[in-house]
Amino acid sequence: MYRQLSTMKLLIAFAFSLSLSLSIFGIKQDSYLIEDCVNQKYTHNSCEKVFCEPWQKCVRGACVCKLPYQCPKNGTMVCSSDRMKFPNYCSQKSFECRHRRSKFVHRGICNEQESFHIFLDSGNASFEGSGFKPSEGMVQVKVNQFQKTFLCGHGWTINEANVACRDLGFPAGAVSTEAVVPSNLSSECITATCRGIEMTLAECALTRLNQTSLPLAKVVCHQSNRECFPGEFLCVNRKCIPSEKTCDGIDDCGDLSDEVCCRACRAGSFHCHSDVCIPESYRCNNEKDCLTGEDESRRFCDTRPKGREIEVTKEAEQSMDEERRKFKTFLPQLHCGILNRTVTRRKRILGGFTAEKDEFPWQVAIRSETQKVSCGGVYIGGCWILTAAHCVRSSRRHLYRIWTGMLNTVEMNTGIDTFLLDDIIVHENYNSKTYENDIALLKLTPKNTNPPCTPPGSVPVCIPWSKYMFKGGSKCKVSGFGLAEGFTKQFALKWGRISIMENCSDIYKGRYFEGMECAGTYDGSVDSCKGDSGGPLVCFDADNVGYLWGIVSWGENCGERGHPGVYTKVANYFSWISHHTKLNFLP
Fold it and tell me: What is the pTM for the complete model shown?
């Protein structure tokens, strides 16, 4: 029987195996690309999929340019192509990002001796002075007062080719690249090593080599769109690449659109939980490239070849990539979702696990006008609590009490605090009949303490900004004061492990909408029930940082096989939450 979630519960049991979960959740293995994801046209500027650069910020799922003054103040002065000086690399990249000019030239004080220019040797002297801009040829650079020098073909990849073409004025980067042996060999060439995100080769690691037989770098830059042939992938920037080059960790498109919608990755690359493929060399390089940090987790890094860190660090010192990475450490850090205690293993209690002190420091209880705990809630920072919309009524704001630090609704423990409510913000599109947009914000009334709204011992849970951070099969924790097995009343805060499910549109046909998420177990032995509404479903990243993935919303009976609980998917409401609270939830 369908019923609202203010009648949902917490029942606890062992979760089933991951291999069984994958088959139940319907994860396909017959193709690398996920079609529905590809249709969303994600790129390197989609912060639902990747981290923004230090000179960008994430706004409504897109990385947009910061203002230069919003960059960290640390760093070394840099000079741009139009002789503008900036206090650091981040500020210059921010200006470049906003104005599409003033490219980076070098680190240090601007002077006439420091310059960087790039050319294409098309092998056709008749074009010189005609205004024609060749799109194909061998790459040359002129650094400072040196003569034009060819780029070495050794180590020349699509990363370097994309940067070279962007530097030459072809925004979509390169179509192809190769190493060729010219008829007239030069006495030297310059090797370039780029990450692929740079706008000019001057930002890459450049090394001058004496040579007599090394091949030279040649590119074909993308300058016109065409229909893709069968067996080709259409990049978001309208470039066509061979389908076998998708999901290999290499940004062949130049906008990353070939790597951000991958069910699996080809050999030599690493698969992030958000379905992004990154190069194997990015794994364990002391920089998080996956949204939930699994590329830097001990689980994967223990198998990393010894000595690699030294190699990566040495290369980074020669380019601006080290500066980019350094600026990321200067950005404000999140202080949420981290437990302030070590949770020890303990004997399993029939009907679930009983929470211990500080184990769920974001859990709150909402006491209604009946003087009973009717719903749960989640502390998200500042003076703000998140809960389900069906738990509260704005007209009864003065009757509610928020209890923090509570472990038992009958036996009062130490560390409990009580708050009145200053405001209730129910989502403007909440539908009480369908439970669409079942989410509400509660603003605590400040106290004469510093800070005025931070409950003693409470830790805010992190708010996920991307709906791709966790997916089907991810194991999370749900907690609450709701009913136990047999719909018997319980007084202690209980919790259990459940898995995210992806087949709920089939289970709840016509009742499952955008902004909802299913979670439970195959046999229904772990579920939420009456009294758990508004409480947290928390998923943890590779560093064990907790993100509020769902808010207990509704379900069909409690603990019924084949009918998992339905939760409000918090990531879908990131902008709404940020707008009303004015809190910064981004890394």
Answer: 0.87
